[in-house]
Amino acid sequence: MNSVEHVSPGSWTYPGDQSHRYTDQEYWTDVARTAERGGFDAVFFADVRGVYDVFGGDRETAIRKGVQTPSNDPSYLVPAMAEVTEDLGFAVTRSTTYSHPYQLAREFSTLDHLTDGRVAFNVVTSYLESAAANLGLDGRMDKATRYDRADEFLEVCYRLWEDSWDEDAVVRDAERGVYTEPERVRAIDHEGEFFDVPGPHGCEPSPQRTPVIFQAGSSDRGREFAAANAEAVFCSQPTERGVVEYMDDLRERAAALGRDPDSLAFFPGIVPVVGETEAQAEAKYEALVEHVDVEAALALLSGFIDMDLSELDPDRKIEHIETDAIQGTMNAFTKSDPDREWTVREVAEFSGLGTTSPVVVGTPEEVADELEHWYREVGADGLNVKEVVRTGSLDDFVDLVCPVLRERGLLPEEPRGGTLRERLFGAGPHLPPDHPARQ
Ligand SMILES: Cc1cc2nc3c(=O)[nH]c(=O)nc-3n(C[C@H](O)[C@H](O)[C@H](O)COP(=O)(O)O)c2cc1C
């Protein structure tokens, strides 16, 4: 996140942590250079509207402890980070609940132009009640309505990005004085339940037209939405079993919708803690755990699942509910391993390092073994490497683990070039023909 902290509450107190520099452009251009040097395909930016005010019924804990607040808009980092890199992609989270599709389509087209086709849109529907009032709404829409709106939102965006301008609309014919052939630019005439957008799109086609679509829907309705739209899926479950169940289910749903199930790329979250020796890695892990702020973790989780965890006895077992907030966080502790029960205290302690993703502690070879296992045996297409300490976690990973991955042929020797979509999927810069947006 473009904030002091994302999902490792308390990590900003770790000696030397640089996350307070999130307001400094140079901090981000350094991150971009490091990620590109490591061979990452993209940097993934989560983004959240509202403040975490479920815990204890107010925002005090979240504000005091820097729980995803303060935070800035990630979109504006992209041009700066793109300027200092050649190949790195940028997955930017935006909410379909709190934006307008005509405006958002323009913003992503602009970013796609400025980065030569290196952007992705992580489509979220948001979950914090506190966001709604600031944006003129009476309250948070229920989940079904949020996803209905998201369906229509993407339909409008797809039509603006894909249908509104022909590839050869811009002719720049100075002799005739024609910049754009008007008959090659069309209205979309969208009239729907949530939006009326006549179009046409204001931007000429960008290298990818539609940015690479990321999604992480985890409820039943959310999975249906992901299966229909996602090209790349970010998921966060603490066990392999939880991730495999999720991937299999989404692939099945995508196939039922007429999509090639193997065209969806899955990026489970993982939290590496690496040291040059096992003892160093262990010591680093212990030091990180010492800096976990359990109360801040509870404030974060309370927002994720919309349940005030301050009211529960720390030794009480977590019981499954269907939440109007993030179902995946709930499932992580109630479904990901059916043989395990979690107490509130255990959940808070585990979540301190990257919330619901597995923590891998070891030497560069051991961490590389684990990542290779996720790729070869579990069936992940890549991994979403979550930072704890900034920028120490990323620096360690790039300096110690990436060279091992490269030696093993798991990272390309040289960047592959092209747009983000070409690099991730090995095909063209535009959406594949079986994607619903192209139907
Ligand atoms: C792995 C993962 C990452 C997410 N990242 C974000 C985010 O960056 N910003 C956000 O507002 N919501 C995020 N969400 C939540 C989505 O906004 C979604 O609305 C929410 O999960 C409710 O739908 P669901 O229960 O179908 O997942 C994320 C959810 C998951 C599972």
UniProtKB/TrEMBL annotation:
State a single Pfam family of this protein. Bac_luciferase
Q: Respond yes or no to whether keyword Zinc-finger is given for this record.
A: no
Alphabetically sorted, this entry's keywords are: Flavoprotein, FMN, Monooxygenase, Oxidoreductase
- Describe the location of the Luciferase-like domain by residue ranges: 20-381
* Molecular function GO labels: monooxygenase activity; oxidoreductase activity, acting on paired donors, with incorporation or reduction of molecular oxygen
- Record CDD domains: Nitrilotriacetate_monoxgenase
Outline the segment boundaries, as ranges, of region: Disordered. Answer: 413-439
Lineage: superkingdom: Archaea
What spans are recorded as compositionally biased (Basic and acidic residues)?
413-424
For this chain, the family text in UniProt reads: Belongs to the NtaA/SnaA/DszA monooxygenase family.
For this entry, the protein name equals LLM class flavin-dependent oxidoreductase
